[in-house]
Automatic annotation (TrEMBL):
Region Disordered: start-end pairs: 1-23
Annotated protein name in UniProt: DnaJ domain protein
Assigned keywords, A-Z: Coiled coil
Origin: domain of life: Bacteria
Residue ranges that the Swiss-Prot or TrEMBL entry lists as coiled coil: 32-73
Length: 181
């Protein structure tokens, strides 16, 4: 009991010491200096933490960019937009009809080019006169349909004879292939 009472007595003296107004100006200056010192220490800690946070944010941004690149590469591999090594091209991608479709070398590339061409060549947005825009759009759709249906024979990696390649290269198309791109 006596220990509790002395302990409470010491706490009461501490409280009274804190509430006693300081009248001496030297004591006030010392307190201000201590507070300013503590404030400077706190500010320097804040600056250090902010610097560490910026470093961590840069690291996270770098890692995020690396992850995006890896995901993009994985997506390309999964969609077969990257040709398997060793598959030689037979030259069909340079034929006029395939040039209209953007000279695709894979089925995925053919489909992507077709979607882009549909957006650009639709008669509602085409810069050509309405009749020509409709003709170009119809030709594009039929060319894609035929190419898609016969992709295994028409793809640039399929084995073909020189005569077949020459026939494809000399095929006439109603529009200049480069005008689509």
């Amino acid at each position: 009991m006596q220990w509790l009472s002395s302990s409470s007595h010491e706490n009461q003296e501490d409280i009274e010491a804190e509430t006693i107004p300081i009248s001496s100006s030297t004591e006030e200056v010392e307190i201000v200096e201590v507070v300013e010192s503590q404030l400077q220490q706190a500010q320097s800690k804040i600056k250090l933490l902010e610097s560490q946070l910026q470093d961590q944010e840069r690291t996270i941004e770098s890692q995020t960019e690396q992850l995006k690149q890896a995901e993009n590469f994985s997506a390309l591999l999964l969609t077969h937009r990257i040709l398997e090594p060793g598959l030689p091209l037979n030259g069909t991608q340079l034929s006029p009809a395939m040039r209209v479709l953007g000279s695709p070398t894979t089925l995925t590339e053919l489909e992507a080019n077709y979607r882009e061409l549909l957006k650009r060549e639709h008669p509602d947005v085409s810069p050509f006169a309405l009749s020509e825009a409709i003709a170009r759009f119809s030709y594009l759709r039929s060319l894609y349909r035929i190419t898609r249906e016969h992709w295994q024979e028409l793809k640039p990696t399929a084995p073909i004879t020189l005569q077949e390649l020459e026939r494809r290269m000399n095929a006439r198309v109603p529009f200049v292939p480069e005008s689509f791109w």
